[in-house]
Amino acid sequence: MSSWSxxxxxRLMVVSAAILVFWLALEVHLFRLQVLxxxxxxxxxxxxxxxxxxxxxVRGMILDRNGNRLVSNSLHYDLAVDPxxxxxxxxxxxxxxxxxxxxxxxxxxxxxxxxRFRYLARKVPAEEIRPILAxxxxxxxxxxxxxxxxxxxxxxxxxxxxxxxDDNGLGGxxxxxxxxxxxxxxxxVLQYDGPRxxxxxxxxxxxxPRNGAxxxxxxxxxxxxxxxxxxxxxxxxxxxxxxxxxxxxPYSGAVLAMANYPTFDPNRHQNFPxxxxxxxxxxxxxxxxxxxxxxxxxILLQEQLKSSNxxxxxxxxxxxxxxxxxxxxxxxxxxxxxxxxxxxxxxGMIKFSQEISKPVFFRYLKNFxxxxxxxxxxxxxxxxxxxxxxxxxxVTKASISIxxxxxxxxxxxxxxxxAMVNGGYIYRPYVVSHLQNSAGEIIPVGKPMQVRQVLSxxxxxxxxxxxxxxxxxxxxxxxxxxxxxxxxxxxxxxKMNPKTGKYSARNYMASFIGFAPxxxxxxxxxxxxxxxxxxxxxxxxxxxxxxxxxxxxxPLNPLSPSESEPQPPExxxxxxxxxxxxxxxxxxxxxxxxxxxxxxxxxxxQGDGAFVxxxxxxxxxxxxxxxxxxxxxERVPNLVGKTLREAMARxxxxxxxxxxxxxxxxxxxxxxxxxxxxxxxxVELVLTCAD
Length: 691
Prior knowledge:
The chain is of the alpha+beta class. Helix 3 crosses helix 4 (104-111) and helix 11 packs antiparallel against helix 17. The protein folds into 5 domains: 2-36; 52-157 and 184-217, Penicillin-binding protein 2a (Domain 2) (Alpha-Beta Complex), CATH 3.90.1310; 221-265 and 277-556, DD-peptidase/beta-lactamase superfamily (Beta-lactamase, 3-Layer(aba) Sandwich), CATH 3.40.710; 571-631, Trypsin Inhibitor V, Chain A (2-Layer Sandwich), CATH 3.30.10; 632-691, Trypsin Inhibitor V, Chain A (2-Layer Sandwich), CATH 3.30.10. It contains 22 helices and 28 strands. A hairpin with a 6-residue loop joins strand 21 (502-516) and strand 22. It is elongated, with a radius of gyration of 39 Å. The strands form 8 sheets. Strands 2, 3, 4, 5, 6, 9, 17 and 18 form an 8-stranded mixed β-sheet that branches. Strands 11-10-22-21-20 form a 5-stranded antiparallel β-sheet, with helices on both faces. A 3-stranded antiparallel β-sheet has the order 1-7-8. It is found in: Membrane. This is PASTA domain-containing protein.
């Protein structure tokens, strides 16, 4: 009896232990399922009876400064299916193959999927899929959505950028401001009941989307249109590789237009090469050539190293400097600083630039913004190229003074020229004005910001007059516009061949940077033409583009009477001027040139002498032939009506003893010896000046 009880007890203990182990294992398994893997199985469970549908936010629009829509959205459908619920499978397959031009097997494969949500097509306009939308089938999901639309096609394409199929920005301001434009998606939760009918889950209310903010640019649609038209025609006219234009407000730094050619259509961006999507105005670095001469001239004037009437001998077109030969396109003799700019003399500017020390030159280049990003913030902006002075060779300063040995962008040059005409202030350029969120609140983004003052107001005014002279008398005559006073500077630069490391004899960058109107400039316009073929000069390839742009955009904002005064006609030397001009024979060259400059008479200096030996007139131009010594007075010259300085310049003092009467600052009204009297020995000449 006791042995049987013992056996039963043992069996009971084994069974109890087994049951305990089973329950412990069950509890562990339930703990693992319900606690450790709760989220996983809850998700699986929800997928069986619940579907989360994103409610896409509408991407914000992009508008110009006047509220014109540059980028908007159009309604479309993202067509999808729940394969397990589709009834009319074959009809749906045939319609999809017809509308989307893909094999039927593609859509059969989608409808045989085990997944509960599959796309058939995305971003499809309603008119293209009306037969499919008309199908009454619970398995077809037809969520409405919005598709990015660029109503003006190629207008400002590189600046605006484009988006991917999910409306994420991929370039330009679409990328730069992707987050505020995108907004925040909402969500709706759908539930299935036993018969697989769909209804909203009351326990999970709909989360509405927060639409993206609208982005307002500083761009003016009308100005941008004019600029792109003129650039396209200009590039085609000279059979160039590409072209760039930037138009700035010089008193704020606001970008009014930024254009590139060739361009692309953001609506079909996938059909265009990557090269056409580049914003060359900020990405392409080039050597500017003669447009840099205005920077060099500004340093000379600001540092008071030279005045506009200081002269230099330009070696008749060829000059060797530290073993390197520099050339001018035309042979020039003596030129003032003003004429060096107007005639775009490389030799003259190189000689003038030697007055500037390397540290001062470098400091001004940095202050103008070269060698650094402008701060506009657009994707892909280049800083340009500017070596520190310690790495400059013997000819680097000379090269930079005429626009070689330095790399710039079109935007950098526009910013620098804006400072030359606005009183000397560098403004940080900006292209975005503000955001306006879905609640209507304004969020400022860009505003006028003075970075520094690099020039005085007086120097700025003198530089404006230099550039006016370039257009009226110099290399920029093709930028002249009737009834609008303008100024600017031409530039022509050979391109470096990256394979050989030498300058190409065929490929050039042609440019013109100018402003209008003259008194208070509203626009600074930089035009750069890459590799023109029919002509490579900036005055021929780029200046006409500037003229066409300014001619068309100025009437968009009518000028005041003072701004629209007619330009004076091109200088023609009249008989009256010739009669009024004193005999310059015997003048020192600088005095003669200063007199001609004051009277706005075009001239040309021949020879490298210090004194004028002969004066001639040709093609409305005064020719001054120079020599090393002054002429000998064999007869008494006519000095009546001359200033004392003019008289002294005409006299050989070894032959005349001068006696002065009256005020020395007045004009000579009487001379003791009659004009033409022979002079055989030193004689006394009494000059009476007006009181």
